[in-house]
């Protein structure tokens, strides 16, 4: 009898997991079967978002000053040219944003953006007076970093993504 009950429990668990997976897939697909590009932040509560953002920043070797607002984290849309990607939005002092860029590759004017920069930063046109910096980590060339900021305090958009190995 125990084998029958164990098998029945296993079948119930498998059916439940399959149902949850189908339900989850249905929530993220439209009638064409494509996944939606969801602009909702990763995670749920502010604490979860903050912890996930801190994890991403740490993996990319970026430390934000204490004065920076809590970053809002989004996943970048899937792209064959990158393995993972994140976009973080937050505010910080303009001088701190300049220091962040100095540590990457130095800020420059952002009069216009390449198609790739616009995609990862989530903007079509940079705000007036915006500054842009980009680069990769010296010890991890696959990790790409893009920073766009404007204003004082600076509204910062930080894109972090991993290029595939060649």
UniProtKB/TrEMBL annotation:
<protein>
    <recommendedName>
        <fullName>Lipoprotein</fullName>
    </recommendedName>
</protein>
<feature type="signal peptide">
    <location>
        <begin position="1"/>
        <end position="24"/>
    </location>
</feature>
<keyword id="KW-0732">Signal</keyword>
